[in-house]
Amino acid sequence: MRILAIETSCDDTGITIFEAKDGTQNAEFKILADNLASQVKIHNQYGGVYPILAKREHEKNLPILLKKTFREAGFFQERSLGRSDGDGQRKFLAKNFRAESVKKSSFIDLICVTYGPGLEMCLWEGITFAKDLARGWGVPLVPVNHMEGHVLSVFGKNKGKFKVSKLKTPVLSLLVSGGHTQLVLSKKFMKYEIIGETLDDAVGEAFDKVARMLDLPYPGGPHISRLAEQARKSETRNSKFEIKFPRPMLNSNNFDFSYAGLKTAVLYFLKKNPAADKARVALEFENAAIECLTYKTARAIEKYKIKTLIVAGGVAANKHLRREMTKITSKKIKLLFPTLELARDNAVMIGIAGYLNFLKNKKKVPRQGSIKATGNLRL
Ligand code: KG4
Ligand code: ZN
């Protein structure tokens, strides 16, 4: 089966084409082409994602990326897809793609698209595009929860072949991104129960905001992490500023998180100490932010007798987080991270989640009319 997956929930436009073979717990995938158009440069000047600009970029990028992805998958002859205006081209693509331009034997059988959570106007761009194509080509459309995509991203690669392997349950997923900080329990594969989450800012958002305070570019996570790693290597006891930031809710009797207080603590510290060494601030912030994640995850592992731990989402790229998570998992617990390419938003994870749900639902899909962008969709 050939599958096209589309992701537009925030500021990355992702399109992937892959082949998949049946079997929910041992499905085999082969990526034929995978593309991601990042909007980082556009949003950098605003210090965060500017929704209307993001929506326009998705609208512009989708047909371009689709063509590129089809070309890379070796699926069609270029000449019949000449038009380049956004909406006109989308309708043109949907109508004419099936014809001579695509080799019949290599046509798409299923489309998967993110329908939430995320920025609704961005989600709609992907959904309308996917609906046009599904209608034009007469193929089923599977709506995908972006967070389930992050969970299942640990199986993927953005090139070549990979398999979905059977996981020992219960599975605990720590989902850490720009919009989410959640601990999710799966007593059964692909069944989810949120056992804890942030009460205010997401951890990725805290990294981004602190980066902004330190005049680092958006998104700030990788920059803070780089500075913190530097400072960690050259830590000296007699540094001029003794920095200690709070670990909010560390001892609360639940699995929730809070990052607003930590962010404010950094802000006040910088106001009082404008000459503080940025790398040391980054280090102490990162230590505090990650310690909250590690501590609560360790407690959840113990309470629920977890057999598999998944750590996914943009912040799962963080080196310190990876090291600390390795420390809290014994040999008895399998620890899974996505590859660095698939930690951030991407279409591969949407394809995996869409295909596995398609199989789980015995190849039934919802009516197209019922598929709607759902900004606050939950697992
Ligand atoms: O999953 P993602 O790409 O998008 C959302 O769904 O939000 O996550 C993006 C978030 C941003 O806040 C970014 O700063 C953070 O992931 N991030 C990191 C690192 N790389 C990305 N945070 C900490 N350390 C990193 N190395
Ligand atoms: Zn995400």
TrEMBL record:
<dbReference type="Pfam" id="PF00814">
    <property type="entry name" value="TsaD"/>
</dbReference>
<feature type="domain" description="Gcp-like">
    <location>
        <begin position="30"/>
        <end position="74"/>
    </location>
</feature>
<comment type="similarity">
    <text>Belongs to the KAE1 / TsaD family.</text>
</comment>
<feature type="binding site">
    <location>
        <position position="318"/>
    </location>
    <ligand>
        <name>substrate</name>
    </ligand>
</feature>
<feature type="binding site">
    <location>
        <position position="150"/>
    </location>
    <ligand>
        <name>Fe cation</name>
    </ligand>
</feature>
<dbReference type="GO" id="GO:0061711">
    <property type="term" value="F:tRNA N(6)-L-threonylcarbamoyladenine synthase activity"/>
</dbReference>
<feature type="binding site">
    <location>
        <position position="208"/>
    </location>
    <ligand>
        <name>substrate</name>
    </ligand>
</feature>
<keyword id="KW-0808">Transferase</keyword>
<dbReference type="GO" id="GO:0005737">
    <property type="term" value="C:cytoplasm"/>
</dbReference>
<feature type="binding site">
    <location>
        <position position="146"/>
    </location>
    <ligand>
        <name>Fe cation</name>
    </ligand>
</feature>
<feature type="binding site">
    <location>
        <position position="345"/>
    </location>
    <ligand>
        <name>Fe cation</name>
    </ligand>
</feature>
<feature type="binding site">
    <location>
        <position position="221"/>
    </location>
    <ligand>
        <name>substrate</name>
    </ligand>
</feature>
<dbReference type="InterPro" id="IPR022450">
    <property type="entry name" value="TsaD"/>
</dbReference>
<comment type="function">
    <text>Required for the formation of a threonylcarbamoyl group on adenosine at position 37 (t(6)A37) in tRNAs that read codons beginning with adenine. Is involved in the transfer of the threonylcarbamoyl moiety of threonylcarbamoyl-AMP (TC-AMP) to the N6 group of A37, together with TsaE and TsaB. TsaD likely plays a direct catalytic role in this reaction.</text>
</comment>
<keyword id="KW-0963">Cytoplasm</keyword>
<dbReference type="InterPro" id="IPR043129">
    <property type="entry name" value="ATPase_NBD"/>
</dbReference>
<dbReference type="InterPro" id="IPR017861">
    <property type="entry name" value="KAE1/TsaD"/>
</dbReference>
<dbReference type="InterPro" id="IPR000905">
    <property type="entry name" value="Gcp-like_dom"/>
</dbReference>
<keyword id="KW-0408">Iron</keyword>
<feature type="binding site">
    <location>
        <begin position="175"/>
        <end position="179"/>
    </location>
    <ligand>
        <name>substrate</name>
    </ligand>
</feature>
<dbReference type="GO" id="GO:0002949">
    <property type="term" value="P:tRNA threonylcarbamoyladenosine modification"/>
</dbReference>
<feature type="domain" description="Gcp-like">
    <location>
        <begin position="106"/>
        <end position="351"/>
    </location>
</feature>
<keyword id="KW-0479">Metal-binding</keyword>
<keyword id="KW-0819">tRNA processing</keyword>
<dbReference type="GO" id="GO:0005506">
    <property type="term" value="F:iron ion binding"/>
</dbReference>
<keyword id="KW-0012">Acyltransferase</keyword>
<protein>
    <recommendedName>
        <fullName>tRNA N6-adenosine threonylcarbamoyltransferase</fullName>
        <ecNumber>2.3.1.234</ecNumber>
    </recommendedName>
</protein>
